[in-house]
Amino acid sequence: DVKVTQSSRYLVKRTGEKVFLECVQDMDHENMFWYRQDPGLGLRLIYFSYDVKMKEKGDIPEGYSVSREKKERFSLILESASTNQTSMYLCASRPLDRGRSTDTQYFGPGTRLTVL
Amino acid sequence: AQSVTQPDIHITVSEGASLELRCNYSYGATPYLFWYVQSPGQGLQLLLKYFSGDTLVQGIKGFEAEFKRSQSSFNLRKPSVHWSDAAEYFCAVGGYNKLIFGAGTRLAVHP
What we know:
The complex is a heterodimer of chains A (116) and B (111). Chain A is mostly beta strands and 116 residues long.
């Protein structure tokens, strides 16, 4: 079974702090994703990485950056956390599939981040 | 523009009743369609997916979905709901290098 793990289930940070959310997958998948989930908005893509050190902006990249130094690990960074970044963050991975998304994405359990 | 619409934000059904969750998509090319479920406190789990072929797709946990190109729909169905089906359900279409999700439908199941 594919396993995608996220470093924290719940996180509370203060405005202005630098925040790291970590995601690790154990299936040697090339592609990894960070989504943000908000009520009534579904999931929105923040960033995606199609290989080590490769990244592309998603639909809502502002205020976020990412790092992919190893194939299994994909980090989401909030450079200076703000209250409007309070949300659920979901990481996902899938095998290499450039172009149309035909392959299943496998999701981690999510990190609920609260910024005070 | 590519989009997915789930018209029902909340649905409540009685245990044992049938269920249909609606999903409409807007996509220029042949759509690749997915249904995911998110149980409380969990990540998303794939229920089923459609790429081509038979328009009636069987998934896990007794769910099925039917692709209707003429209606741009991919509705999810289950003949008899169990209390453990209470969750949030997301429809998605496969776009370029990403999934485009609907806003989700939260399902409550009454005993």
